Amino acid sequence: MARFIIRRLGGLGVTLLLTSFLVFGAMHVAPGDPASFLLKGRSPTPEAVAAVRAQFHLDDPLFVQYGRWIGSALTGDFGRSVQFRQEVGGLLAARLPTTVALVAYAALIMVLGGLVLGFLSAMRPGPVDRVILLGTTVAVATPSFVAAIALISLFAVGLGWFPTFGGGEGVLGTLRHLTLPAIALGLSLVGLLARVTRASAVEELRRDHVETARLRGLPESIVLRRHVARNALVPVVTVTGTVVSGLIVATAIVETAFGLPGIGSMLVQSVVTRDFPVVQAICLLVVLAFVLANLLVDLLLPVLDPRTRQYAP
Amino acid sequence: MNVLEIDGLTVRLEGSVGARPVLSDVSLHVAGGEVVGLVGESGSGKSVTCRTALGAVPRGASVDGAVRTVGEDVFGLPARELRRLRSEKVGFVPQDPRAAVNPLYRVGDYVIEALRAAGVPKAEAPDRATALLESVGIPEPRRALRRWPHEFSGGMLQRVVIAAALAGSPRLLVADEPTTALDVTIQAEVLSLLLDITAERGAGLLLVTHDLELAAAVCDRAYVMYAGRIVESEPAASLFASPKHPYTAGLLRATPSLTGPVERLTAVPGRPLGLDEVLPGCSFAPRCAHARPVCDDGPPPLLEDGAGAVACVRAGELAPELRRRAHEEQAV
Ligand SMILES: Nc1ncnc2c1ncn2[C@@H]1O[C@H](COP(=O)(O)OP(=O)(O)OP(=O)(O)O)[C@@H](O)[C@H]1O
Ligand SMILES: [Mg+2]
């Protein structure tokens, strides 16, 4: 098991290194010159442009620039934000808690809602199943910005139950401020997860061992809990892992719509202003989250399914 | 005393108007301590029949007739009582242990679950499970409790399934082709275990198989099923020596013998009747070498004949010929 984790961590390092290079390279082939943004508003003389390019080492070969960037990134130094004229590390650290809280909140809504609706739908064929199917179809098809607008106009502006804007103070204040954004973020994924859970549970219900369990006279509660739900969870966990890391990317839209000071809204601003150091750092963070979520799923699957254990030396 | 009595059972699948029932007027019984075979080709309704003994019918099916299992009218039982009947008074052994055991739980869990359902207190369950595993010949039973199904061979896993079926001290065991999914070399072992255990406990055994020779060898009596009907029932010995229904005779010829040469194997010509095919008379007529126009005059009733019963209008005139051919087959 220890060797398996070490191997996975090694793979994780390689993945991060490769993607960080891709992220870095992509910035530099993207149209738009950071130097011209830095000098925006002025009429740049060639000397001024050259000076800025030298200050940000923009004339070095790509590999040299990447080496310098990744070297300091490893020590936690992601450079200075062009836009905010501050250390990127500090900027991110200040905004990370909001995003982490938002993603965790949305993930909780997604997992609870998805599992409950999915299992209910699988185990109560008929009207319950059809209503849930309809609801989840609508949810899946609702982009988070549409959900955001609908939620703001109904619960924030219309009913006044929740604030429309900002991050809030303290635990309760934060929860209140994050509720609508978390719903907007998680809604379509509740639908997705409910669908995956339903399909998985329906498949398990048809299995021979479930029929046998009933013929053996096991109580229905045990049949459903131990032999249907437990087995149906295996594919659901895999999907959840991928989807939760995808939530981080989706925060870009929701945080912007709700004016939340998080990583997502910052990514949007930084892309607009071509603030490369910030964009690079956030991309790296997202990749890290993906890789970690995958690692977590890989570690969890053998716990859930003993048959996969023999392949993990 | 009979531990299983199926009486005039007809089972029709949901939405199958016009199609023939899965089971038509099936009657059979198993006495305590008796081993009864249920033989027939694939699709003849053997599995459906033995599931009705446990009070289970295909979803939405309509049921006529009665099934009494260990004295209980299974279709009249409330859900709780049915569950108790299944966990305490009947043991079910399915065809493929690999599919019947949930791969995500330990071997011990499969047995302990059955014991708990049969009302054994939690604290006693592990010891009882160990004893059950030991009684079915699992080596190191206490350690086996902690192992996973995928670490067991098919034969060993079927022993575990049999052990779990004994959890409630059942009066009746229902085994649906219990050795078909196993390696040929261990089929005999598992079957003799099953027979020993039912004999030891004085339980009745309903043994489903498509192997007539096997049924004749190990059963006291056997029923032959074709297209959802019992076409013949006999003490096992006479089933083999003097089959009365042409289908039984055909099945005997289709059974490969361990002693005879391989050429003896001739499958019953034609194919089994589909569920959507309805015939006015005998369902076997299209495949029967002895069919006459009279065979199409309505389904032949199952009539007593000596120690058994046969559903063939020509049974009387065909008997000498079928017996002679059976003897020839065995003489080869
Ligand atoms: N739950 C069900 N829903 C629909 N049809 C069913 C169901 N169970 C059985 N049948 C049909 O009933 C018929 C009899 O099936 P059954 O499983 O009893 O056959 P069998 O004699 O056990 O065959 P085999 O030797 O292949 O196990 C088949 O045509 C089958 O397709
Ligand atoms: Mg069957």
Description:
- The complex is a heterodimer of chains A (313) and B (332).
- By secondary structure, chain A is mostly helical.
- Chain A has a domain at 95-311: MetI-like (MetI-like fold, Orthogonal Bundle).
- Chain A has helices at residues 2-29, 34-38, 46-55, 62-74, 88-123, 127-140, 144-158, 170-205, 208-215, 220-258, 263-272, 276-304.
- The longest helix of chain A is centred in the C-terminal third of the chain and has 39 residues, at 220-258.
- Chain A starts with a helix and ends in a 9-residue tail after the last helix.
- Chain B has a single domain (2-89, 169-257, 266-271, 278-331), classed as P-loop containing nucleotide triphosphate hydrolases (Rossmann fold), CATH 3.40.50.
- In chain B, the strands form two sheets. An eight-stranded mixed sheet of chain B has the order 6-7-8-3-9-10-12-11, with helices on both faces. In chain B, strands 2-1-4-5 form a four-stranded antiparallel sheet, with helices on one face.
- The relative contact order of chain B is 0.14.
- The chains are: A mainly alpha (313), B alpha/beta (332).
- The A-B interface holds A 207-209, 212-220, 222, 226-227, 230-231, 234, 304-307, 310 and B 51, 54, 56, 79, 82-88, 90, 92, 94, 96, 99-105, 113-114, 117-118, 148, 150, 164-165, 168.
- Bound molecules: adenosine-5'-triphosphate (ATP) and magnesium ion.
- Residues 13, 22, 40, 42-48, 58, 210, 275 of chain B line the site of adenosine-5'-triphosphate (ATP).
